């Protein structure tokens, strides 16, 4: 069983519909740690040592956040800037994360059709995740296809519940399953990959 | 007197002070009463250590009053005086006028002739600047409305000593001319106009000298860098002015007061105050001791009924006049009580004026003796009056204000704020802004009156009592914020709440580090040192003012705060075996600081922001470049 670390960042969780449910669903899972960054560091004063220890102690790292401006909320960026130190996470001597697996879990208002060259957002969603993709690679991690909840604003309760169940299955797969098929897969989404 | 006699007397005086004042303070009687009692004890009627030279001592000690008035003047800005002119001349003038009039009428009716009656009226209308100011400032009440009104009246009384002297001089002339031929009058006291000229001249010299010369003199002395020279200059200044005034025939105290006012804007003001303060305190103490020693108990015992009668009349009349005037000037009840009770005694200028009157045959020996005793005894009653006011009248006033403790409507507010002073108010505003309604309790009725104007609903009550806590809604509330300023009260409330309302979350103010550590033990939900964050913030401002990058200082502040939390936890672990309060207080503060600094070395705060630093990246890039290194321009 692998250990999964969810680095969760939502600045206004009480106003969220989807993310709240997603996290609630997976919070209690065995070997899954939810690290609620905005709650932990309300003043953005990230405890770098603590975060690095967490990274060392887990095998699968998930960045879970709403998709703000084709990217992540500021806290995630702060986390990247401070926690992935040269000599720890990357660089000639930075091997702490070598061999681990990374994945993105996002919720976005745009429906999947819009994330195409002829759509409103003009590019597939994996394109927008390139920074995360490459960052993971620089840290010698494998980057999986993302788990994405599209059209988040329009989902009703049932649809949300479905997505939550899906997320749970993905995590269980990441924890227990054989990842050789999915590592560095060029697939667009993680959502269907496991079913 | 031989040297050893002088030493003996000095030792006696100082010993008396050192013994009686701490006792008096412990008993809540105030230092002045302590000095007075010391004087009585060492005086000719009890221990007989001091006696007739009491007069001489009193002259020296009067310097205490003189210095005190200089310092009072220093603290005044002429603009403040001008602003208070209504109080000073209106309230003060009326107090003197009416009181003097009533006393004059009473004494004229019963005992004295006209001149004597007016003299007595004027003398008795004055209150004791020394005692009242000292007591009010000890009790921290100078800034209250009642305190300020008292201050204004005292100021007017000090000012009026000059015209009173002039009036007495006139009577003296009258006496002289009654018993002596008119021709000899011209060789006697100077005429009215001449006197006026002298007064104007003297005042002029002080004002001009103070405004233009003093600065250069002080600068010259200060540049020597010798501390004692400045002290000498300050003393020289005060004594010089006092002496000058004396020669000219004016009140020394008023002269120094004036000098103080002129120098209030000088940059050497604090230095002056600093240097003179110890002298003032000591000399005032000796002054009060000599007042106590000068009470003629023989005369007192012989005529105690008369004296008691006069004393009662004096106090009652003064109380009445003050009370009515206070109402006229719209003082609130409790402020008026403070005002009334604090000024109801006769003042130390009484001694000076009575002696003057006696020397000039306005009074005979008997009258002056009796009056001196009355004045001294009335001064003795001051602390008692203060006590009556504080413990009997004020509490009753608060009750009669239809408050009792307020009936708190249980609105089911989720938060109770206990204590609505400086900290509670800001906190309340913040919670308000977050649309959290709080029930606010405070036990200072002045606060409540004041805050009502700003639209706050503050209940009066002592929330460290169980019924008040219950009435405030502790059973239904979710959080109790303990924002009071006194440690004992805070601890009491915490204990009470945890005992009776264990589900009520406690957010507690800690008054210092020791308290913070102690609160850690009690398991409250949150506790915080009240001044810590402000101190760090101001420190950040200081860094920014030095030109440090604001983000850098901000990060630095954050780091410091987080590290301090860690230090505190570690300190806590070290001390948790013993009662941290006890241990913190017995260990030297420096050791505590040493601990903090040691820990700081172990947690260098660079570690938090390493990633922003690119040095290691640059090193690696340089190494990997090798011969292919391109040094980019």
Describe it:
The complex is a heterodimer of chains A (195) and B (633). By secondary structure, chain A is α/β, with parallel strands linked by helices. Chain A has a single domain, classed as Flavodoxin domain (Rossmann fold). Chain A contains 7 helices and 6 strands; from the N terminus they run E-H-E-H-H-E-H-E-H-H-E-E-H. Chain A has helices at residues 18-27, 37-40, 48-57, 74-83, 125-128, 130-138, 157-176, and strands at residues 4-8, 32-36, 60-66, 101-107, 142-143, 147-149. In chain A, strands 1, 2, 3, 4, 5 and 6 form a 6-stranded parallel beta sheet that branches. In chain A, helix 1 links the parallel strand 1 (4-8) and strand 2 (32-36). Chain B is mainly alpha-helical. Helix content of chain B is 72%, strand content 4%. Chain B is built from 28 helices and 6 strands. Chain B has 2 domains: 57-398, Na+/H+ antiporter like fold, CATH 1.20.1530.20; 415-611, Rossmann fold, CATH 3.40.50.720. Chain B is globular and about 110 Å long.
Q: What order do the helices and strands come in, and which of them pair?
A:
The complex is a heterodimer of chains A (195) and B (633).
Chain A: E1 4-8, H1 18-27, E2 32-36, H2 37-40, H3 48-57, E3 60-66, H4 74-83, E4 101-107, H5 125-128, H6 130-138, E5 142-143, E6 147-149, H7 157-176
Parallel strand pairs in A: 1-2, 1-3, 3-4, 4-5, 4-6
Helix pairs in contact in A: 1-7
Chain B: H1 3-26, H2 30-42, H3 54-74, H4 78-83, H5 85-110, H6 114-125, H7 129-138, H8 145-179, H9 182-187, H10 192-224, H11 227-248, H12 252-263, H13 269-294, H14 297-302, H15 304-328, H16 333-342, H17 349-359, H18 365-400, E1 415-418, H19 422-433, E2 438-442, H20 445-452, E3 458-460, H21 466-471, E4 479-482, H22 487-500, E5 505-510, H23 513-522, E6 526-529, H24 532-545, H25 550-575, H26 580-586, H27 589-602, H28 615-625
Parallel strand pairs in B: 1-2, 1-4, 2-3, 4-5, 5-6
């Amino acid at each position: 069983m692998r250990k999964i670390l969810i680095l969760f960042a939502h600045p206004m969780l009480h106003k969220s519909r989807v993310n709240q449910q997603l996290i609630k669903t997976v919070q209690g899972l065995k070997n899954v740690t939810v690290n609620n960054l905005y709650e932990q560091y309300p003043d953005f004063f990230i405890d770098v040592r603590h975060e690095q220890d967490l990274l060392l102690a887990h095998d699968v790292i998930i960045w879970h956040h709403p998709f703000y401006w084709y990217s992540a909320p500021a806290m995630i960026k702060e986390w990247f800037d401070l926690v992935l130190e040269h000599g720890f996470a990357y660089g000639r001597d930075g091997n702490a994360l070598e061999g681990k697996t990374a994945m993105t879990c996002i919720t976005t208002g745009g429906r999947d059709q819009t994330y195409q060259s002829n759509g409103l957002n003009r590019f597939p969603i994996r394109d927008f995740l390139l920074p995360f993709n490459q960052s993971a690679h620089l840290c010698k991690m494998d980057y999986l296809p993302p788990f994405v909840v599209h059209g988040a604003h329009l989902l009703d309760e049932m649809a949300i519940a479905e997505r939550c169940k899906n997320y749970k299955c993905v995590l269980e797969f990441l924890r227990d399953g054989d990842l050789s098929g999915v590592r560095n897969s060029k697939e667009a989404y993680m959502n269907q990959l496991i079913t | 007197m031989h040297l050893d006699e002088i030493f003996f007397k000095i030792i006696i005086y100082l010993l008396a002070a050192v013994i009686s004042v701490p006792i008096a303070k412990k008993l809540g009687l105030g230092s002045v009463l302590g000095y007075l009692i010391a004087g009585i004890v060492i005086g000719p009627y009890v221990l007989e250590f001091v006696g007739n030279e009491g007069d001489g001592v009193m002259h020296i000690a009067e310097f205490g009053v003189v210095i005190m008035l200089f310092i009072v003047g220093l603290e005044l800005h002429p603009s403040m005086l001008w602003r208070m002119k209504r109080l000073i001349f209106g309230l003060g003038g009326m107090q003197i006028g009416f009181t003097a009039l009533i006393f004059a009428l009473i004494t004229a009716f019963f005992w004295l002739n006209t001149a004597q009656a007016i003299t007595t009226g004027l003398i008795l209308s004055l209150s004791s600047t020394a005692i009242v100011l000292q007591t009010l400032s000890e009790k921290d009440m100078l800034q209250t409305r009642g305190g300020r009104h008292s201050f204004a009246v005292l100021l007017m009384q000090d000012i009026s000593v000059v015209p009173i002297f002039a009036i007495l001089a006139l009577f003296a002339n009258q006496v002289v001319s009654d018993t002596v031929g008119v021709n000899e009058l011209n060789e006697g006291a100077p005429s009215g106009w001449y006197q006026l000229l002298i007064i104007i001249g003297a005042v002029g010299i002080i004002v001009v000298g103070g405004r233009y010369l003093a600065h250069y003199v002080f600068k010259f002395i200060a540049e020597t860098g010798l501390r004692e020279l400045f002290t000498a200059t300050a003393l020289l200044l005060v004594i010089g002015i006092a002496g000058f005034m004396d020669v000219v025939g004016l009140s020394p105290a008023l002269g120094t007061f004036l000098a103080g006012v002129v120098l209030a804007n000088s940059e050497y003001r604090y230095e002056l105050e600093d240097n003179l303060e110890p002298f003032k305190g000591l000399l005032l103490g000796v002054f009060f001791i000599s007042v106590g020693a000068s009470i003629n108990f023989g005369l007192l015992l012989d005529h105690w009924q008369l004296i008691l009668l006069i004393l009662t009349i004096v106090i009652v009349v003064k109380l009445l006049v003050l009370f009515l005037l206070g109402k006229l000037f719209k003082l609130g009840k409790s402020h008026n009580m403070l005002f009334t009770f604090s000024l109801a005694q006769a003042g130390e200028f009484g001694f000076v004026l009575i002696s003057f009157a006696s020397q000039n045959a306005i009074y005979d020996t008997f009258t002056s003796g009796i009056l001196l005793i009355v004045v001294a005894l009335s001064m003795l009653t001051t602390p008692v009056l203060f006590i009556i006011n504080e413990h009997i009248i004020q509490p009753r006033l608060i009750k009669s204000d239809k408050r009792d403790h307020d009936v708190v409507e249980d609105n089911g507010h989720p938060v109770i704020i206990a204590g609505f002073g400086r900290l509670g108010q800001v906190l309340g505003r913040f919670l308000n802004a977050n649309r959290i309604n709080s029930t606010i309790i405070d036990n200072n009725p002045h606060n409540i009156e004041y805050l009502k104007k700003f639209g706050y609903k503050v209940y009066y009550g002592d929330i460290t009592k169980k019924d008040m806590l219950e009435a405030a809604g502790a059973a239904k509330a979710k959080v109790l914020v303990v924002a009071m300023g006194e440690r004992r009260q805070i601890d009491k409330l915490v204990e009470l709440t945890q005992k009776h309302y264990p589900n009520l979350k406690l957010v507690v103010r800690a008054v210092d580090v020791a308290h913070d550590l102690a609160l850690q033990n009690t398991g409250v939900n949150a506790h915080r040192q009240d001044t810590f964050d402000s101190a760090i913030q101001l420190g950040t401002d200081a860094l920014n003012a030095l030109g440090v990058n604001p983000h850098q200082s901000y990060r630095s502040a954050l780091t410091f705060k987080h590290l301090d939390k860690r230090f505190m936890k570690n300190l806590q672990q070290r001390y948790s075996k013993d009662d941290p309060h006890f241990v913190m207080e017995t260990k030297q503060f420096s050791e505590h600081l040493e601990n903090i600094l040691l820990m700081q070395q172990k947690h260098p705060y660079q570690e938090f922001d390493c990633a922003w630093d690119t040095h290691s990246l640059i090193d690696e890039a340089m190494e990997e470049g090798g011969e292919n290194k391109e040094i980019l321009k």
